[in-house]
Amino acid sequence: MTQTLRTDVLIIGAGLAGSLLAWRLIQAGKSVHILHNPKLTSASRVAAGLINPVTGQRLVLQENIEVLLPAAHALYQQLEEQFHTQFFFEKDMLRSLQHDKAKLAWKKRQLDSAYQHYICEIPSSPDVIKQSQTGYLDTNALLDALHGYFQQYNCLTEGDAQQHDIQVHQSAQYHLQWKHITASTVVFCQGWREINNKFFSFLPFQPAKGEILHLSTPNKLPEHIINQGKWLLPLNDGNFKIGATYQSNTNDEQTTEEGKKELLTALKSMPIEQQNITLTNHQAGIRPNTLDKQPFLGMHPKHKNIAIFNGFGSKGSLLIPWYSKSMCGHLIHGTALPGHADIKRFACV
């Protein structure tokens, strides 16, 4: 007979969001258990892990970048020291101004002092700008390290938890139960799959599929990340990735010939030797985008011990460190969540 396991927080989902939140809570002294289904495709396992403060054709500086970026650097440095492994790699980005919209935006940004730390012109290449404080997170290496840590301390269970499997016992301290695990609080961190979660069906997710290619070549790679609408990411191991496609209104996680063709066509215009390139992997994942482009954090309006930590879209590597700290404080001390991210902003069921 399986013995009942009691924990302060049960986290459902062990992608980057669930894993970093679990790490924060454990470091704060809370008992945590994570449910993880390795058979399900995780956007965190597919994502390139790009960190880029200025994005889009309009060259928009990420809101609150002055707190988001230091929080990301601090947490990844802490994890690198813990596991004696480098996870974050700084690498400047060269961005082509291919369209009039981008060229006009650059003229405006040159007059804005807020952008000076993140972007500059290249005099010898008038249609190319250099973005700094960019880089990438090796999400797979980090998740492997964290999952190994959780397994070592017996706080990760492989399983598929559906919302109807959660039993609520209002009279007990550990009043949330999944099979043999009872918890004071449950946090859902299942990415786009939360659209099927009855507790949070009122949240307007807008999932978007993306495909990327992994490639290798014996030729010299660019020193910088290249952004020409599609990006080319030279990796620390000498291989590189190119991505990403964008397809909304689909929950299909399968790779497609159309996606591969789109990316290989983009590769032909990249500043890289085109001979002797080998395709080594083709992946697809679904970004957990949201209607208002802001994350979903907070407690269910009726079930005060059921929470969500989700909706980071394609910017999880940059956003999750700071928001996980905020969510951790909210769960432990009841501190207020950022209003723009708190799910109280939506009408409740």
Features:
nine-stranded mixed beta sheet, D-Amino Acid Oxidase, Chain A, domain 2, alpha+beta, 3 domains, FAD/NAD(P)-binding domain, globular, 349 residues, eight-stranded mixed beta sheet
Low-confidence stretches: none
How would a textbook summarize the main sheet?
A: 9 strands, mixed
Q: Output the CATH class name of the largest domain.
A: Alpha Beta
Distance between the termini: 39 Å
What is the CATH architecture term of the largest domain? Answer: 3-Layer(bba) Sandwich
Q: Looking at the structure, what is the overall shape?
A: globular
CATH topology call of the largest domain: FAD/NAD(P)-binding domain
- How many structurally independent domains? 3
The H-and-E topology, N to C, reads as EHEHEEEHEEHEEEHEEEEEEEEEHEEEH
> What is the number of E strands?
22
Which structural class is indicated by helix and strand composition? alpha+beta
Q: Count of DSSP helices?
A: 7
Question: What would your notes on this structure say?
Answer:
Strands 7, 8, 9, 15, 16, 17, 18, 19 and 20 form a nine-stranded mixed beta sheet that branches. Strands 1, 2, 11, 12, 13, 14, 21 and 22 form an eight-stranded mixed beta sheet that branches. A three-stranded antiparallel beta sheet has the order 3-10-6, with helices on one face. The protein has three domains: 5-49 and 139-204 and 292-345, 3-Layer(bba) Sandwich (FAD/NAD(P)-binding domain); 50-137, no CATH class; 208-287, D-Amino Acid Oxidase, Chain A, domain 2 (2-Layer Sandwich), CATH 3.30.9.10. A hairpin with a 6-residue loop joins β8 (119-121) and β9 (128-131). It contains seven helices and 22 strands. The chain has 349 residues and is of the alpha+beta class.
